[in-house]
Amino acid sequence: MSALTSNKTILEYVEEMKALVNPDKVMWIDGSEEQLDELRAEAVSTGEMIKLNQEKLPGCYLHRTAVNDVARVEDRTFICCEKEEDAGPTNNWMDPKKAYDMLYAIAKNSYKGRTMYIIPYSMGPVGSPLAKAGIEITDSIYVVLNMAIMTRVGKKVLDVLGDSNDWVRGLHCKCDIDAEKRYICHFPQDNAIISVNSGYGGNVLLGKKCFALRIASYQGKNEGWMAEHMLILGLQNPKGEVKYIAAAFPSACGKTNLAMLIPPEGYRNKGYKVWCVGDDIAWMRKGPDGRLWAINPENGFFGVAPGTNMKSNPNALISTQKNTIFTNVVQNLDDNTVWWEGLDKNPPKNALNWKGEKWDSESGEKGAHPNSRFTAPAVNCPCISPEFESLTGVPISAIVFGGRRAKTAPLVYQSRDFVNGVFVGSIMASETTAAATGAVGVVRRDPMAMLPFCGYNMGDYFAHWIEMGEMLGDKAPKIFNVNWFRTDDEGHFIWPGFGDNMRVLNWIIDRCEGKVDAKETAIGYVPNVDDIDIEGLDLTKEELAGILEVDKELWSKETDGIEEFYAKFGDKLPQALRDELNGLKERLAK
Ligand code: OXD
Ligand code: MN
After folding, report:
1. CB burial string 96-123: b at 16+ within 10 A, e below
2. pLDDT per position as a tens digit, 13-55
3. Which of 175, 364, 454, 526 has the highest local Cβ count within 10 Å?
């Protein structure tokens, strides 16, 4: 098959990789439905994918990964830059020369008997000034078909790229899925990624975490923009005005649910609506009007299946009902559909678990892997934003950070100013739950939810945030923190969460527009009790006041934890953040 481009930088890379991996065949992915259909048929014929019930789930397939290959592998993920210091204390580092030698030895001849697929893809709408291109070379049809959902693929990407060398090189080799030789390596200085011995999405869909966060965060620092682990949503008021919010939460704190929120009935009747622009990643840049504009670089949702149901997130569930690839869920053999824990209370009787073994739901063993996934096209989402394909993106009014804290953080607070907001993001943390580990309330720091995804020294990353604030000046978004997870003495959640989070988003937008006052506390501004609408909720004013409280004693302890965390960064920590910490301590002591 002849090349789809005359871009010399791409052709050279492809030739070099071809000589290395030594494939039997080469196929350029042109983005056509015909070609993707051929690949689907081939994957079904080899058993790589299972075609599901096409009446109930049109265009849907099931895939099972190797049992030792079910999640991102942070301990085998490396930033390979010249100086170890530039990877920083929160990343694994490897010398680039050593990494290339090792990876090339693993990749050598590994495509023998296989096809080399060349996927040209765009992160962001093709032609958007905020978008960037990549080439992923892979020996996996599963990767091709997932990339065709998660990104924009094909010839159109190459046509827009022209002769430019501004694209990211990505090589993926399944090899033997040997966990001992699994490496996910990033070369930020070369715009390159190499992933070997895995077939699991987060490790091998190189456009997502590897490019759109790790490589792009480094590009953003050098080019004056931001790549963040954030959802983007649009909140429409009854007048039809839409304001956009970008929000970062660590894993398992409900990013996809918030991004696709359905407002409570009272709000819906008044004409409120939430639009989803993205559920995982935001690329943001200063626009011609001086505001911060964001795109979602992805084109689909790679969501966690368990727990997704018609109550927790109907929009996500509906998104998975066609043209979706399911990975590691239960297969219902009676009607050839899929199931996972938390979908409904009727596990199938005649079924295979995520490993493909006969499964009895009464055995006490989980049928779907806890990290089983759906890869669903964004266009399937009933609340996908009309601006989803916008080349200029959407203007961001507010940035929201959040975590899971049983006591410390109030339901919502606004930072004192932008730099204080960077401080708030930098101290983001979540507590482990009883379900996940024995010890409840162990605090894990995850600044801006970027801990596993920042492609360079996090101290420099904080400095970049502060610079962005300076660049945006008074047009910068306002910064907030939310915590849906405050519990009472028996450990029950006090705030109802889900659609009712809309009530908090409304306060946030009102604050951005200067429509409501707030109460100053040591950590920032919290709502006056009357300004959060609790009509129709099973929650008293006193309970609301309780979860808006800032407990100075807890926060004093918190500052000790922050101090300890900050110490990791040594003199890479911006002085401005040290000053913020001291300021907080002083206000708490008053
Ligand atoms: C994801 C993650 O898959 O953050 O989005 O792990
Ligand atoms: Mn994520």
Report:
1. beebbebbeebbeebbeebbbbbbbbbb
2. 999 999 999 999 999 999 999 999 999 999 999 999 999 999 9
3. 454
